[in-house]
Design a protein that fits this description.
By secondary structure, the protein is an alpha/beta fold. It has a single domain, classed as Maf protein (Alpha-Beta Complex), CATH 3.90.950.10. It is built from five helices and seven strands. Strands 2-1-3-4-5-6-7 form a seven-stranded mixed beta sheet. The chain starts with a strand and ends with a helix. This is dITP/XTP pyrophosphatase.
Length: about 200
């Protein structure tokens, strides 16, 4: 019976979001940093390969089942980039790493671009052990448009500039529980909860 799962992330926002969604399983999510596990290398060009590498790394170091998420923004006008480089997007343009600078750099790069369609993508991978031959994989996508300026107070990352047409609002303008229910990470987490319930518990 799985009771604890290591989350291969040090992002507190991500941990809080996922912990709320995993609560029904009665499983405790533990941040890898709290177990003294260093961050894994992420050398790959797809979310899936990076998430799998991070999950295997956390399982190897902890001896526990592990869960890793690799997520990013895929902008149509940029051929799907920044993708796996989303966290470091701002650094390509001389800004320090960080959410606010990522948003600033994106809006600068998109100035004058008509096609503003983009998707936030989250790939969640779960492994029972470092060598698990059957990783659980869940993918969530939230498609929207990049706004001209940030809007809203909630969320993190690109939430203030990700306009979701069916709500007529950015993710940062939605109440957190509504955002979590519809976000890329929310979709992936719901699938993962079902997979864990079906295969691991």
């Amino acid at each position: 019976m799985v009771s604890r799962i290591v989350l291969a992330s040090n992002n507190r926002g991500k941990l809080a979001e996922l912990q709320a969604m995993f609560a029904p399983l009665g499983v405790e999510l533990v941040r890898q940093a709290d177990l003294g596990i260093p961050e894994a290398e992420e050398p790959f060009r797809t979310f899936l390969e990076n998430a799998l590498a991070k999950a295997r790394h956390a399982a190897q170091h902890s001896g526990l089942p592990a869960l890793a998420d690799d997520a990013g923004l895929c902008v149509d006008a940029f051929g799907g980039l920044p993708g796996v480089d989303t966290a470091y997007y701002a650094t390509q343009f001389g800004y320090p790493k960080g959410d606010d600078n990522n948003v600033k750099a994106l809006l600068e790069q998109m100035r004058g671009i008509g096609n503003r369609r983009a998707a936030l993508v989250s790939t969640l991978v779960g492994v029972r052990s470092p060598q698990d031959p059957e990783p659980l994989v869940a993918v969530g996508r939230a498609v929207g448009e990049v706004t001209e300026a940030p809007r809203g107070e909630h969320g993190f990352g690109f939430d203030p500039v990700m306009f979701i047409p069916r709500f007529g609002k950015t993710f940062a303008e939605l109440p957190p529980e509504m955002k979590n229910a519809n976000s890329h990470r929310g979709q992936a987490a719901r699938q993962m909860v079902d997979l864990i319930r079906e295969r691991w518990l």
